[in-house]
Specification:
The chain has about 425 residues and is of the alpha/beta class. The chain is built from 16 helices and 14 strands. Helix content is about 40%, strand content about 15%. The strands form four sheets. The protein has an eight-stranded parallel beta barrel, surrounded by four helices. It has a two-stranded antiparallel ribbon with strand order 5-6. A two-stranded antiparallel sheet has the order 7-8. The two termini are about 20 Å apart.
Length: about 425
């Protein structure tokens, strides 16, 4: 082992599991969330630190002006709201963190603060909030808006949003509840105070009517990729997910986040950076390579899915662009700007059709046996400096989850690279230590 122990997370959503093989009924029964209960239990046993559930709020019809390919491939719809499901997943487990996504553009601050305070209570301090500002006008149109605010303005709004919800979470002192039968007081009114926030974007009186939660505030997750997004994350987040290109890009991203955190007066070690990967695992190298070759051979399906993906989070209709040319330099987005720049770098000078037909969303390629991939992850963490990986698969399957939890995770544990237990009661404390 060369690297220090690192952390594992799962980056997923509540969408249909693999449905094309016909090997299970999960594709029809997943909406009761028991599939995800089985999944999170497997992950907790295997040594994962958390499951993160992304979300979106629309049925995308950007590509060619129709939702046909979106619904054909079931990528962004149908999808369940992760926030109500957090308590179900936490009730089925004991230690693993559960992170849910909620948008600062569409939630009112008071409602979000109260919801995640409640979740922190019922999960006994194991909840996280993935902060998104949203990137789709189609989502905005479901909330009475014609289009989203401009990219940097969304982050300005998010800054004030975080200020408000933090004040609300702090509106109850830790010792506000006394439950004193002698005095007859359940809560001390001198330790529960309005916040009287009046800002540019929000006006909130407070206080919360939920008591202070076990962690004080949920673990904060963010995925800032643009310069504005990185700065927001470095100031506010406990953990980040990112998809840089290759080891040097991974190291640059982590070093930049840590430098920005220090500039905000934070201890950089408080922030854990997770790099998104999508391993292809086989019992032998030949089997893994055959799986990768099969993926790359399915070019039309891969192309269609990437067009849906680009359309959904960038709101760029690639159907009007020549697929036999590279992405034009003048194409811009009000969506995920940092991610878009990363994709253009990954495409290089290749044509849209060629690049999108075999593109995998991952920071680094991982193809091989569990032992081979464990060695590659070890080397990557040594080069980058920390802090962990976040696995991505869409759609998921029971087979793939167990390739990770029963194949790769034991190989990582044999090398002392991932946790063997949870020493602390709360998610944030476990994230910051292996003690």
């Amino acid at each position: 082992m060369a690297a220090s122990p690192f952390r594992l997370g799962w980056f997923g959503n509540l969408t249909t599991p693999e449905w094309r093989t016909g090997w299970s009924n999960d594709a029809l029964s997943w909406t009761d969330a028991r599939y995800y209960v089985d999944m999170v239990r497997d992950m907790e046993r295997a040594g994962f630190d958390f499951m993160m559930l992304e979300d979106s709020l629309m049925v995308s019809d950007i590509y060619a002006g129709t939702a046909e390919l979106e619904l054909k491939h079931a990528m962004y719809a149908p999808k369940l709201d992760p926030v109500p499901v957090i308590s179900m997943l936490a009730y089925a487990t004991e230690h693993i963190g559960i992170v849910g996504t909620a948008s600062t553009t569409f939630y009112p601050p008071y409602l979000l603060a109260r919801t995640f305070s409640t979740l922190d209570h019922v999960t006994r301090g194991r909840v996280g909030w993935n902060i998104v500002t949203s990137s789709e006008d189609r989502a905005a149109q479901n909330f009475g808006m014609d289009k989203l605010p401009e990219h940097d303005l969304r982050y300005e709004i998010a800054e004030e949003f975080v200020e408000v919800v933090t004040a609300l979470w702090d509106s109850w002192a830790p010792d506000a509840i006394v439950a004193d039968p002698i005095s007859g007081y359940y809560a001390d009114h001198t330790k529960v105070a309005p916040i009287h926030h009046k800002g540019k974007h929000f006006s909130v009186r407070g206080p919360l009517n939920t008591p202070r939660s076990p962690q004080g505030r949920p673990v904060i997750c963010q995925a800032g990729a643009s310069p504005r997004g990185r700065d927001f994350a470095a100031k506010n987040a406990d953990m980040l997910l990112c998809i840089p290109n290759g080891l040097d890009g991974m190291k640059e991203y982590r070093d930049d986040i840590r430098a920005r955190a220090a500039a905000h007066g934070r201890d950089p070690d408080e922030i854990k950076v997770f790099f998104v990967v999508a391993p292809i695992i086989g019992r032998t190298m030949e089997e893994a390579q055959a799986k990768e070759a099969a993926f790359r051979a399915d070019k039309q399906r891969n192309f269609e899915k990437q067009m849906v993906h680009f359309g959904a989070i960038m709101e760029i209709d690639f159907s009007v662009l020549d697929p036999d040319l590279p992405i034009p330099d003048d194409v811009t987005t009000n969506g995920h700007q940092g991610t878009f720049e990363g994709w253009k770098q990954a495409f290089g000078g290749r044509t849209i059709k060629d690049a999108a037909s075999d593109m995998r969303v991952a920071s680094m390629p991982l193809v091989g046996t569990p032992d081979h991939i464990a060695d590659e992850m070890d080397k990557a963490m040594e080069h980058v400096g920390g802090d962990g990986f976040m696995f991505l698969a869409q759609p998921t399957s029971r087979e793939y989850i167990r390739e990770i939890t029963e194949g790769l995770c034991p190989a990582l544990r044999r090398r002392g690279l991932i946790r063997t237990g949870f020493a602390h009661e709360h998610f944030r404390d476990n994230m910051r230590s292996f003690d």
